[in-house]
Amino acid sequence: MNRFSRSWELIKASARVLAADKELLIFPIVSAIASLFVSAAFAIPLFLSGGLSGGAENGFPAIYYLVLFIFYIVQYFVIFFANTALVGAATIRLKGGDPTAADGFRIAFNHFGAILGYAAIAATVGVLLRLISDRSKGLGRLVTSLLGFAWNIATFLVVPILAVEGIGPIQAIQRSTALLKKTWGEQIIGNFGVGAIFGLITLGIILISLPIFYLLITAELIWGVVALAVGLVLVIVLIALIQSTLNGIYTAAIYQYAVNERTGFFEEEMIRGAFINRS
User: Which residues lie closer than 8 Å to 39 by C-beta, 6 or more apart?
Assistant: First the structure.
């Protein structure tokens, strides 16, 4: 509970950064729109390659994994590029600057090659884990899930490292692992806290909407039902965008603390208490 409380304080500090730079929301919006286009573009190739007609029991054809690999590279690149822009701009603010959206995109473009390389590495890991999972049962799938979780933790700080340090993807992964060994702990609890809090908010909004839907349907106010449904979707999308932005800001703050840098938005004691020092 103490760690969750500290995570909530870190979330509020992240929200203060977002309040100072609302343009940070641009990066998750760009990421979401681009990801939708990428998914739509690969939907037909994945279908034609047997991804939907095949099955894990019969085994997916090799061409499916090839198409999946290319899809992962493009999708990961879009996500990592937008996240690098977000974290880069957030870092400028955390260091006392006044970033613009152009600053974030400039940082991401400056590390285009490294982001693409990291996307290729992540895609390789993703396809291998998917391949193992598709051909495993029970315990094998559990082990695959644990491996995927370990990969996500080990690479938690890769994006801010790419944005700030300007090193290659392999070195960034090694650097992320080294920093996590030094400052292990709250990044997991903090992300859980963000997800849990926003999940509860979303659930609450949905529960509040249900009786209103019922009343509108009972009164046969179809346009009211449609308007409420559209409004609900827009609110949920906005919540998701805010959550994604706060995650990026939070990651930038965690990285700054890990490399012994401080910021006025996050109290030093607050962040120091968010880690278990294993050195």
Answer: 75
